[in-house]
Amino acid sequence: MSSISINAKLAVMASEDQLFPDHNGFDIKSITKALAYNKRKPGRVRGASTISQQVAKNVFLWQGRSWIRKGLEVYFTFMIELIWGKKRILEVYLNEAEMGKGIYGIEAASRKYFKHSASKLTRSEAAMIAACLPNPVRYTVKPMSRYVAKKYPWVMRQMSNLQGDPDLAPIISR
Fold first, then answer.
1. What is the pTM of this model?
2. What is the pLDDT of residue 67?
3. 98: which strand partners?
4. What distance lies between CA 81 and its chain's CA centroid?
5. What CATH number has the domain bearing residue 49?
6. Do the domain assignments include residue 1?
7. Which domain holds residue 74?
8. Number of domains in the chain
9. What confidence category does residue 31 fall into, taking pLDDT thresholds of 50, 70 and 90?
10. Could you tell me if residue 89 is inside a domain?
């Protein structure tokens, strides 16, 4: 965690889970909104997974959608929130999330896209990587996809909004 730029930590929370410091692993409001959306548009699926849920799925479970996997994800999310805490969850997420086709972790992404360590990521570089996270195979950093080009300035604005949040300080500190 100490060798990852604060910009990277802030960027993934700004992009993926702005309530990360405040929830217990589940963003009930987002889950409710996603359920309503999915009911209105059954052919399209909107997710509402928090960083904690993504870590539980990526570390302990398999990819895909099923009620069994989702039930196990709830269990593991509860356990990692209870045992690991926010800082460790974010560290695991940053080190295991896919951030491009075959690129896992922020260090690999930083070296591949920007030719330097994750400790040196600038705000804009971190925002570009975070912008690809909904689908890092489809939304590419280099060459920059239209989606990433549109989303990363939004991520940077959200980073500015979150920057002064006192709940974030213990999570993103080195």
1. 0.88
2. 80
3. 104
4. 16
5. 1.10.3810.10
6. no
7. 6-172
8. 1
9. low
10. yes
